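Why Sugar ABC transporter permease? Reviewers of the renewal asked for a concrete example.
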Amino acid sequence: MPMGNAQPSVRPAQAGRTDGAVASGAARRGGRSRRAGGGSRTERLAPYVLVAPAILIIVLLRLYPLLLGVNFSFTGDGARNGTPVGLDNYLELVDDPLFRTALGNVGLLVLLLPVAVAIPGLLATFIYLRVPGHRVYRSVYFFPAVLSPVIVGAIFNLLLAFDGPLNAALGSVGIGSVDWLGNPDIAMFVVVGVHIWATFGMALVVFLAGFATLDSALLDAARVDGASLFQVIRHVIVPGLSRTIAFVFVTTMVGMLTSMFGLLYVMTSGGPEGSTYLPEYYIWIQQGQMNRPALASAASTALFVIMLVVGLLQVQLLRRAGRED
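Here is what the prediction returned.
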C-alpha cells in the first residue's frame, strides 16, 4: 500500500514538469520564430532603404527636369513664350537643315560605333594576354582619358592644321596637304577619331575588369587545341564578355552623343558648312546664341528618344548574338 500510494504522487509531478518543459520550449521556439520573422522583414526592407537615396536623387535631378523639359518643348519662344504650340517646335526641327545634318551625323556615329568598341576591346585583349610591355601600355592607353576635351581639341588643332606637322610629314613623303578640319567630307570623321582616341581609355578599363571574370581554363583549352588568336577571340572571349561588350556599346554611344561638345566647339565650331553638327551642339546654339529655349527643349527631347531607341536596339542585338553563339 505505501508503494501504491507513492506511485500516483510521483507521476503527476513528473507529468507537470514535462508539460511545463514542453510549454517553455514552445514559447522559446515561438519567440525565436518571431524574432526570425522580424529579422527577415528587416532584411527584405534593407535593399529598398539603401537604394532610396539614389532613387530620390535620380527622380529629383533627372526624371523631374526631363519631364519639365518635355513639357516646355510644347510651348513657344519669343512673342509666344509660354504659350502652348503643340508640335510646332518638332515640325520646325524637321524642316531645319542643320538639325537634319545633326541627325545624319548621329547615323554616322552609329556606323562607327563598332570601331570605337573594337579598339579598346582588342587592346584589352593584348594586355590580358600579356604581350611584351603590357604594363606600360596599360598606363599609356589610359592617359588621354584624364585630359580635358578642350586641351585635346587644342592639341589636335595644332597637329591637324593645314600647315601643321601632320601635313608636313605627309609632304615629306610626297603626299599633298589635307585640309583635315576644313573639308566637309572628312571633318566629322576626324573629330570622331579624336574623340575615340581621347576616351577609349575608360572602355579599356571596363574590358580589363571583364577579363578578370573570364574563365582562364577556357583560354588554356583553346591554346591546347591549337586555336588561332582570331578563333580565341570569336569563340571564347566574345561569348565570355557578352555583358561587358553590351555595357561598353551603350556607354560609348551615350558618350558620343552627349560628350563631344567640347571637341566640336574647339576644333570646328560646327563647321565647315555645318557638317560637324551634332544634336547637343545644335541644342547649345539654339539655347545659348539664338535664345530659343523651347526649340532647344524639343531638340533635347528628340536626342533623348534617339539615345533610348539606339541603346535598346544595341542591347537586343547583342543579346541575340550571344544566344546564337
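The chain has one domain: 87-324. This is the kind of structural detail the renewal will allow us to pursue systematically.
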